[in-house]
Design brief:
heterotrimer, A alpha/beta (627), B mainly alpha (293), C alpha/beta (238), A: 627 residues, alpha/beta, ABC transporter involved in vitamin B12 uptake, BtuC, Rossmann fold, 2 domains, six-stranded mixed beta sheet, four-stranded antiparallel beta sheet, 24 helices, 58% helix, C: 238 residues, 38% helix
Chain lengths: 627, 293, 238
């Protein structure tokens, strides 16, 4: 709760400015401009909760605004219900709508990012149509909202609205900050970076997306309900129009989508810009400027301003404050123009190449504090001999290609099983089946006694299955340590972040990556990324670890290192299925070899025996080999 | 209006929907670009038709001979820009949205936001119709249907029977292997962008014949066009035509039987159902699900 | 100088910062069949993809009939007479067999004679004529392999590249595939076949290279390499 005190303070300051600012000499434009700015801050933040954090771009923000606004319009405007009821009702309805959208959209098998965007685009259209036809809602005429009565100690309605909007906006920012730093935020980031990998390490992707869309809908609707009070006359075009989604997308893309403060920065800049364009008579250029900003930004600076501002905070603050202070004292032009000039200058300073700025103004980013390394409790090794994995007559078809046919396999606790076979024999398909990435066309699979054929991959992960990918797939926007911590946080043991981070250090030591803990995956070479895959897989303390061609592309020295790592993991009691084609590696590690050939099990047993089997040698070297 | 007449008129108007949707669908399916600027090109086509007809007295239908080539080049240029900037898939949605906004505002600045309609002496087609039996065929809808048929037939033949068409279908599935056999995807994408632009010109011309123009008309087309694209199967030319007709019929019948504003609800439900039950499109004849490597 | 149809000189290929090929030298003469064998991860596919233009190279030259194709844009490489049967077939799954084959003849020189070529391909693989209207993705692995080889032949190549043609196929099917390869070689086309199945590859070729960890480990005639302890050691990893 301590860290959210800052939000409370911010709200109190804003409330004071709104209620008593006029007496204190605060300029008159602050309240009306502030109402608009706070509305957009809330909307952009609401949008970003789902779309920025998870990467599922919604084009339907207007649906929430419209629902909230019409709840107030119908309940208060037409039936005189008190705002105390109609505003929360608007928020609740909007939340329900969000859940409905999510329930449909997130379950579609064919869902791609574009389809989600189009579906959400359609929703406001539908709602607008419903509102237009339906006389009890609107019927095409619009609804007037009567001004509520204002308590005597408040100067006027705008001041009250300013305070209400400030509460919603600050509340939205607080929620976004809480989400970002909590489990939900980490899960959403993982979904954005690599959704199926996230699912594979135990993130319940459907549930997380539903939470995100629910929060987005609630905030959007709440703010939309207040919007009805702001505009006073609610029409279908006014609240369901495309301007709203366009603006929130531009604001969030401009400000930065990965941080809770990004959309607010974008909102402030765009609102001020729009205000000044209107004031100087250039309203016509408004959409053109916005369209251009969107098109250019997406191509040139898709990450937005916030990250760059954070890297050089003093330069940015200076660029912002100096013109505003100057404008306050120099009697030339409206103060708002100086404010806009300050914002634009700050934005410019944030994005220019570093060498254009004096070095004094550039402060290097604060290094992340390194948590103490915490030795994790050794995993309870299952009783040796207990069956950990059981496949029965499993088959998988892709169109006309039989990738796997009638595969039956049992793996006991503590074993290190090598899964081998020529290219195209079905090894990776089998791993995909075990981890739940694909479903078997036929047959059953059980992990630790649980039938996994129907389980979502993240539940299979919770049952104790962890895997690496042949081509490493790290979460690019997280550090190496955090990549590993994710498995601890979302895996079987569901650790809190701090503990997962601490244990991650130990796992990184096991794979000899500890000195790169603070680096980002983008700067790692292939070998290091493969080690990261292994560390992440091990961090969830799985019952069975699936290593899919973990040595692909490595040179002999690196291979030896990797073998050592696997030995250490196995010695700790983890059951391992190792997909490999390097027989010398398997010789050193495996307690058992299973040979696949053209989708079927060719041999299964003790490595020496299997390797001496003529059928196996022929499968590897070719049918005509003289054995 | 009887239901039967509504269905018939709806089917013909479906030709206009198909005409609007085909260019978008093909560039989406083949080039993986969702070009919202396509709507801007339809809008420009409509306004240019209006302008040319009213300023020069040229027969409005013939204006397409000018707007077609012009928008062909615009479409090709936009596609070229997307290729140069490596804009595809999701980014194309955002970038083209930005372009659409700019275009709509430019149209507003040049022609104003007022509704514009070609006067009767310049545009005699708006009120003409043919009567066969007890059915009335408005000339403009017949024209739309005819143009759509021509476009679909031509595209279908090109895609199915010519080498260029095969090349286009190949790059949609495996661009690298297609290149190994000599398919130059940049050149094909320019041509495809241009064809989409030209089809937008035709769609705009037909729209201008029957409707009053306003800059925000572009937004009103979104719902119908995306319904047609998704129901018809992204990139499926014949499917898009069939979906256009179906959407036209359903919209018209629902409007006649209940009310015009109910149609979007029906359409949206249809899209959702289609995505759940048959993601490759209602009218796609064959596709291999789950195939590939 | 250009007695060789294909001459690879000092070829380096990187994937990001990982080096996959180290100064590889290789030649294929006109009408010759050459095999490249080696364990997985040795870089065989990388080599073949580089020759076909599917993989950018970092250094070195790839000369096909005297022209350096390594600097060309991918879609111009096939004009030199190179055609590839990629690893894993990579047929166009949503197109019919007939369309897949036709696409093979896309380049202008092949397009002119595509009907005649099609007849020859169908003579070689009668099953492709039967299944002409079927979507390629619905075929079995072996049939897809025939489509992929047929597609490459439609390009009327002077150099045919085959990347692991036996991959994931039943022995009987592999027999068919290799019989076809032998017939193709006999018609005068130079063939470069990359294989895991060492005896098969050696049986159809006049010369062979052993690739290991991105480098050419040894080269020789099939007789020299059959039963070679080095080959067995390298490929099996024992």
């Amino acid at each position: 709760m301590r860290r959210y005190g800052g939000f409370g303070l911010a709200f109190l300051i804003l409330a004071a400015v709104g209620l008593w600012g006029r007496d204190a000499g605060v300029p008159g434009f602050v309240v009306p401009l502030g109402i608009t700015a706070l509305f957009w801050i809330a909307q952009a933040t609401s949008w970003n909760l789902l779309s920025g954090f998870s990467g599922y771009f919604s084009f339907g923000q207007a649906a929430y605004v419209g629902t909230g606004a019409y709840a107030v319009a119908v309940l208060t405007g037409r039936h005189g219900v008190s705002l105390v009821w109609s505003v929360p009702a608007g928020a609740a309805l909007s939340g329900l709508l969000a859940l409905a959208i999510g329930a449909v959209a997130f379950r579609l098998r064919s869902l791609r990012g574009e389809i989600f965007a189009l579906l959400t685009l359609a929703v406001p259209f539908i709602l607008a149509a419903v509102a237009s036809i339906n006389r009890t809602i609107d019927g095409g005429q619009g609804t007037t909202i009567p001004l509520p009565s204002v308590p005597g100690w408040i100067d006027g309605f705008p001041q009250l609205l300013f305070v209400l909007d400030a509460a919603v906006a600050i509340g939205a920012l607080a929620v976004a900050a809480a989400v970002q730093h909590g489990r939900l935020g980490w899960g959403l980031t993982a979904i954005r970076d690599a959704e199926d990998v996230a699912e594979g390490i135990g993130v319940g992707t459907l549930a997380y997306k539903m939470w995100a869309i629910l929060l987005s809908g609630l905030i959007g609707g709440l703010s939309g309900a207040l919007y009805a009070l702001q505009i006073g006359f609610v029409t279908v075009e006014g609240v369901f129009g495309l301007t709203i989604p366009l603006l929130v997308i531009v604001m969030s893309v401009l400000g930065g989508r990965t941080h809770w403060l990004g959309p607010a920065i974008g909102a402030l800049l765009i609102v001020t810009l729009q205000d000044r364009l209107a004031a100087s008579g250039y309203t016509d250029w408004n959409p053109i400027v916005l369209g251009a900003v969107l098109a250019v930004l997406v191509v040139v600076a898709p990450d937005g301003l916030y990250g760059r501002m954070r890297a050089r905070p003093w330069a940015v603050i200076g660029a912002l404050v100096v013109p505003i202070v100057a404008g306050y004292y120099i009697p030339y032009g409206d103060l708002q123009n100086w404010v806009l000039a300050g914002m634009l200058l700050a934005a410019l300073v944030a994005v220019v190449p570093a060498r254009w700025l004096p070095a004094r103004l550039l402060r290097p980013p604060r290094p992340e504090p390194v948590p103490a390394v915490d030795r994790p409790a050794p995993p309870e090794p299952g009783p040796p001999g207990e069956t950990v994995v059981e496949c029965r007559s499993v088959a998988r078809y892709y169109g006309g290609v039989h990738a796997l046919e009638d595969v039956s396999l049992t793996v006991a606790g503590g074993e290190l099983v090598g899964l081998v076979g020529p290219n195209g024999s079905g090894k990776t398909t089998l791993v995909n089946l075990l981890s739940g990435t694909v479903r078997p066309s036929r047959g059953t699979i059980a992990v630790a006694g649980q039938d996994t054929a129907r389980l979502a991959p993240h539940r299979i992960a919770h049952a104790g299955v962890a895997r690496t990918y042949q081509i490493p797939r790290p979460f690019d926007s997280m550090t190496v340590r955090d990549n590993v911590a994710m498995a601890g946080m979302f895996g079987r043991r569901r650790l809190p972040l701090a503990q997962a981070r601490a244990e991650a250090g130990a796992h990184l030591e096991t794979v000899s990556l500890d000195r790169l803990a603070g680096a980002y995956p983008g700067s790692l070479n292939l070998h290091q990324r493969q080690l990261l895959e292994m560390a992440r897989a091990v961090a969830s303390e799985p019952r069975v670890l699936l290593l899919d061609e973990a040595m692909a592309g490595l040179n002999p020295a690196e291979i030896d290192e990797a073998v050592e790592v696997i030995r250490r993991i196995s010695a700790a009691g983890v059951t391992i299925v190792l997909v490999e084609h390097l027989l010398r590696v398997l010789n050193q590690l495996a307690t058992r070899l299973v040979v696949l050939d053209r989708g079927r099990v060719l041999a299964d047993g003790e490595p020496q025996a299997v390797l001496a089997d003529p059928a196996v040698v022929r499968a590897y070297l070719g049918r005509q080999t003289r054995v | 209006m009887t239901i039967a007449q509504a269905a018939l008129t709806g089917a013909l108007i479906g030709g206009l929907y198909a005409l609007m949707a085909t260019g978008l669908s093909v560039t989406w399916g083949v080039l993986r670009v969702i070009n919202l600027a396509h709507f801007a090109m339809i809008l420009l086509g409509a306004y240019l038709t209006y302008q040319l007809a009213t300023s020069t007295g040229l027969d409005p239908i013939l204006t397409v001979l000018i707007t077609g080539p012009v928008l062909f080049m615009v479409g090709a240029a936009v596609q070229w820009a997307y290729d140069r900037l490596h804009v595809a898939e999701f980014t194309s949605l955002l970038v083209s949205f930005g372009l659409l906004i700019i275009a709509i505002q430019a149209v507003t600045l040049i022609w104003s936001a007022d509704f514009l309609r070609m006067p009767g002496d310049i545009n005699p087609y708006a009120t003409e119709s043919w009567t066969v039996g007890r059915f009335v065929f408005p000339v403009t809808t017949v024209l739309a249907f005819g143009l759509a048929l021509v476009l679909v037939a031509a595209l279908h033949l090109v895609l199915r029977r010519t080498f260029a068409g095969r090349g286009m279908r190949a790059i949609a599935q495996d661009r690298a292997v297609a290149a190994a056999f000599g398919v130059d995807h940049q050149r094909l994408s320019l041509v495809l962008g241009g064809v989409a632009g030209a089809s937008a010109a035709a769609a705009g011309m037909v729209f201008a014949l029957t409707n009053a123009l306003s800059p925000t008309a572009a937004y009103e087309w979104f719902g119908i066009v995306f319904a047609v694209v998704i129901l018809g199967g992204i990139g499926q030319v014949v499917g898009t035509f069939a979906a256009g007709v179906a959407v036209g019929v359903v919209s018209a019948v629902v409007s006649a039987a209940w009310s015009p504003a109910t149609a979007p609800i029906v359409l949206f439900s249809a899209i959702v159902l289609a995505l759940v039950l048959r993601p490759q499109g209602l009218f796609t004849l064959r596709s291999v699900v789950g195939a590939g490597r | 100088m250009s007695e060789s149809l294909l001459e690879v000189r000092g070829l380096d290929v990187h994937y990001g910062d990982a080096q996959a090929l180290w100064s590889v030298d290789l030649t294929v003469g006109p009408g010759e069949t050459v095999a490249v064998v080696g364990p997985n991860g040795a870089g065989k596919s990388t080599l073949v993809n580089a020759i076909a233009g599917l993989q950018p190279t970092t250094a070195g030259e790839i000369l096909v009939a005297g022209t350096d194709v390594s600097r060309l844009v991918p879609h111009r490489v096939c004009a030199s007479g190179v055609a590839i049967v990629p690893e894993g077939r990579r047929v166009f799954a949503q197109m019919t067999v007939a369309d897949n084959l036709a696409l093979g003849a896309y380049r202008p020189a092949a397009r002119r004679e595509h009907r005649a070529t099609l007849a020859r391909v169908q003579a070689l693989f009668p099953r492709l004529a039967e299944r002409a209207g079927q979507l390629a993705g619905s075929l079995s692995g072996g049939e897809q392999q025939m489509v992929a080889i047929g597609r490459a032949l439609m390009a009327r190549p002077t150099l045919l590249l085959l990347d692991e043609p036996s991959l994931g196929l039943a022995p009987v099917v592999v027999d068919e595939v290799y019989a076809a390869i032998a017939a193709i070689a006999e018609s005068g086309v130079s063939v470069l076949v990359v294989e895991q199945d060492v005896p098969r590859a050696l049986a159809v070729s006049q010369r062979a290279y052993l690739l290991s960890e991105g480098r050419v480990a040894t080269t020789g005639t099939p007789a020299e390499l059959t039963d070679s302890a080095e080959v067995r050691r390298t490929v099996l990893g024992l």
